[in-house]
Design brief:
This is FCD domain-containing protein. With 102 residues, the chain is an all-alpha fold. Helices cover 68% and strands 0% of the residues. The longest helix is centred in the middle third of the chain and has 24 residues.
Length: 102
């Protein structure tokens, strides 16, 4: 993936999250020019969450032992729409279907 593709995917994810502010549980609109399926879109949203969470966990670890629940809660407070979309659209069974772990 080149930079142009990266920015298209980023912009598409940002648009999905902007739309989801009104109702995170509403059906997500998949841009077929960017994502081949709803599962691919959900994987990309989960990837965004995991990247942010990993960065926060690593930063917290610099100060000593990490309270994973606290770091996760702080990220959820900072990214409420992203967390709500994932919670609304990914049940435990759908996480397994697309190869993710909650």
């Amino acid at each position: 993936m080149g930079w142009a593709d990266h920015y298209r995917r980023r912009d598409a994810l940002d648009a999905v999250l902007r739309d989801a502010r009104r109702d995170p549980s509403a059906p997500l609109i998949v841009d077929p020019d960017v994502f081949s399926s709803l599962n691919e879109l959900l994987l990309a949203l989960d990837h965004r969450w995991q990247n942010k969470l990993t960065a926060r966990m690593e930063a917290a670890a610099l100060d000593g032992p990490v309270d994973e629940h606290l770091v996760t809660a702080e990220l959820a407070a900072d990214e409420p729409v992203l967390r709500a979309v994932l919670d609304a659209h990914l049940s435990l069974s759908s996480y397994r279907t697309v190869g993710m772990t909650p």
